[in-house]
Amino acid sequence: MVYKDNLTKIEEILDLFSNISPGLVFTLERDQDGKINFLNLTITKGASKLTFEIFRKPTATDTIIPNNSYHLLEQKLAAIRYFANRIHTYNLDHLQKQKEIHIIKQIIRTNK
Fold it and tell me: What are the residues whose beta carbons fall under 8 Å from the beta carbon of 90, sequence distance 6 or more?
């Protein structure tokens, strides 16, 4: 949820959500320096808009099936397709798209 501190009493909303079902636990994570990681995106709050970039955990390896393995070609290409589709699925600006294309090319070179 994106909200404005001066208009929203977020603690009250968190309490309301938490009381919907005792089996569900809701937590509050605030942005740090205008950025927050959500799923596999980093969302940055600018003056007039939100910008997005791909988030990778520090432990992420971006390892894919090596080209010389005996896996089916379809299986080998699945991760590359995923990385490529993600570039077009998310609302990345041109610079972020170029950054991701560079990372994908490095992944492919590393796994030859």
Answer: 41, 52, 54
- Each residue of 14-25: pLDDT tens digit? 888 888 887 888
3-class state of residue 17 by DSSP: helix
CA distance 79 to 9: 42
Whole-model pTM over 0.85: no
Cα distance between residue 25 and residue 102, in whole Å:
39
Residues comprising the chain, all counted = 112
Amino acid at 33: D
Determine the Cα–Cα distance for residues 62 and 104; give it in Å rounded to an integer.
9
